[in-house]
Amino acid sequence: MSHDLAIIGGHVIDPASGLDAVTDIAFKDGQVSAIGADAGAGANEVIKADGLYVTPGLIDLHTHIYWGGTSLGVDPDAYMRQSGCTTLVDAGSAGPGNFHGFRAHIVERSEARVLAYINASFAGIFAFSPAVMVGESGDIRLLNPMEVVRVGNEHRDIIVGVKVRVGLVASGGIGVAPLDIAIESADALGLPVMAHLDHPPPSRMEVLSRLRPGDVLTHCYRPFPAAPTTMDGRVRDEVLAAKDMGVIFDIGHGKGSFSWQVAEAMMAAGLPPDCISSDVHTMSLPGPAVDQLVTLSKFLHLGMDLSDIIAASTINPAKAMGRPELGGLAVGGPGDATLLRIDHGAFPLTDANGVTVEARRRLARAGIVRNGAVLR
Fold first, then answer.
1. Which one in 9, 98, 167, 346 has a CA-CA gap of 20 to 30 Å to 156?
2. What's the CATH fold of domain 57-326?
3. Which segments of the chain are extended strands (E)?
């Protein structure tokens, strides 16, 4: 069998299948066509990946890429090349009132695979900038579950859940009502919720007690207030209860939602994240999140096993979206792969509080295969 492309000699890490070895991968017609020693024999194009890691195409579960349509959106294709992620999931930039535009101008034009959580608020995240910050969940009139369900059904092929932001910044003083409406909408669609909590109100308990198994708590390592740990590093009871119930913990680093102190306490308590995501947007791209690879590198510094880090950016988010086929390398599956290297040196990594650590290792992009072809 002839192949369009082969990656040979790389260390393949595919947590979905358990493959963790030096081997070859071949691609044909946009799909994985062979895996194993000499799998790429006779390929039209060959990438020699000696000394590199080869993973399923990385997934960033929390991005904001409604570029030009919202104040916080970044260019999805530029970000794909920077981050090495072949699948980008927009976390609620668009709501029912502008989701058609998001699809037409971003999803259908991007080289990246773009999926999305639809915002529970009609206009999505419409005012998020240093100059103007107006939370989309602060006016209950914008939260219409019938519209979420209507538009959600029209775009079921790309919508993976319902995003809701609550907290003093996102919803003002109206409490937990936006989350209740989002859950009602998601339940009607048969999809999970991704919930954001910034500063209370509502309380952490009010939010966590409502989430269902399979729902996603993003910003799970955020600093005080609404941190998952006490000031002395104890994991809060409601956080443990949510984890035991099957709530998915996602990093969603962003500009204000990752703390070294909280991360160390959560990891020490045996609560690593299920999913690692960047929450990239115009105000987090310059730092401290920067991109998915910088965010992943923070967990390398924290001592998380490389295969677990890769799982948290491949099969785990794929399962969280109900799209497990996107999170692995399998013959006949999507022809996406990311080539990575580990750089050694001194690399400053900063959290949302401005605390900087010096890491000795970082993950760096060495190549991207998208739809069975090298992304150039």
1. 167
2. TIM Barrel (3.20.20)
3. 5-14, 19-28, 31-35, 45-48, 53-56, 58-63, 85-91, 113-119, 127-128, 133-134, 159-166, 193-197, 216-217, 248-249, 337-350, 356-370, 373-374
d(CA 332, CA 251): 31
- Give the predicted TM-score (pTM) of the model: 0.98
**Structure tokens of 251?**
């990093």
Say which amino acid occupies 140.
I
Q: Angle at Cα 283 formed by Cα 281 and Cα 289, nearest 5°? A: 70
Which helix or strand (DSSP H or E) is residue 184 part of? helix 177-189
CA 338 and chain centroid, separation? 15
> Rounded to whole angstroms, how far apart are CA atoms 63 and 86?
13
Q: Is 303 left (phi over 0), alpha (psi -120 to 50) or beta?
A: left
pLDDT tens digits, 123-144: 999 999 999 999 999 999 999 9
CA dihedral 249, 127, 105, 216 (to 10 degrees): 10
| Cα–Cα distance, 261 to 237 (Å, whole number) | 18
CA neighbor of 288 nearest in space, from 222, 343, 228: 222
The mean pLDDT value of the chain amounts to 98
Contact 313, 276 (CB under 8 A): yes
pLDDT tens profile 320-357: 999 999 999 999 999 999 999 999 999 999 999 999 99
